Amino acid sequence: MHFTSEQHLDGGVREREFTLGEIPGILWTPEAASSSAPAPLILLGHPPLGLGKMYPRLVGRARHSAADGFATATIELPGSGDRPRLPAVDQARADLRRALEAGEPVSDEIVDALVLPLVDKAVPEWQAALDALLTLPEIDGPAGYSGGLISIGTRLAVVEPRISAAVLFAGSFVPRTIFDEARQVTIPLHVLLQWDDEGNERQQALDLFDAFGSKEKTLNANMGGHTGVPQFAGDAAARFFTRHLK
């Protein structure tokens, strides 16, 4: 991990951009984080729109987490931002757009081609980022995962034992194989669902929640579209991490 820039935001939040090999990322730490009082870490997931476009939303989430005493970090997803494109995923995205515009059902083949390559590439990269971040003296476990593609969060919850709790955002297409993996998830989960999400199959989101094997899992469903998550829902997710990571 190589830090490339540093700035201090309002409220004493320290923001550092880094590269992990060829992967860009950002780390936010609260002012009080130190080697004698390390902060627990939350990995901030996001959709594959590029860190530049997602930055305002990510830094907002990071500020709220820092106020609760958490460090947060994110990395650029495969095929996003300035990273090399993934032609097969781009083609699947175009196929998805055509199906939605034509009012046609989205086939399992399109969903698999769109999501599974991202999951297969992104999860090991998140694990490598976790390796590097947990070597920093001001950061310590346990770690959580929040947001982004729910399929990535599901896979991470299965394969990464250092992830102790996760907040997952329902709102993306889910391959059938991820339902099988969901049954292996055992960590505490807090799932956010927008009831009128224009891009989400509500029943699929409910079925996935039902499939999760966790003994503690909460579904927080609210009226409204994809970007209309109410502030109190975010506050509930923050309390979930405080309960499980501190």
Description:
This protein is an alpha/beta fold. It has a single domain, classed as Rossmann fold (3-Layer(aba) Sandwich). The protein is 41% helix and 25% strand. It is built from seven helices and nine strands. The chain has helices at 51-67, 87-101, 108-133, 150-159, 176-182, 202-211, 231-245; strands spanning 2-8, 14-20, 23-29, 39-45, 71-75, 139-147, 163-170, 189-194, 217-222. The chain is globular.
Contiguous uncertain segments of 5+ residues: none
Average pLDDT score: 94
CATH topology: Rossmann fold
What is the CATH first-level class name? Alpha Beta
Give the overall shape, derived from the CA principal axes: globular
Based on CA atoms alone, the radius of gyration comes out at 17 Å
Fourth-tier CATH superfamily name: Alpha/Beta hydrolase fold, catalytic domain
Determine the fraction of residues in helical runs and give it as a percent range. Answer: 40-55%
Quantity of strands, as a count:
9
Q: How much of the residues is beta strand, in percent?
A: 25-35%
How many helices? 7
Helix- and strand-based class?
alpha/beta
* SSE topology string: EEEEHEHHEHEHEHEH
The largest sheet, given as strand count, sense and whether it forms a barrel, is: 9 strands, mixed
Q: Report how far apart the termini are.
A: 26 Å
Whole-number tally of structural domains:
1
The CATH architecture is 3-Layer(aba) Sandwich
Describe the strand arrangement of the main beta sheet, using strand numbers.
1-2-3-5-4-6-7-8-9
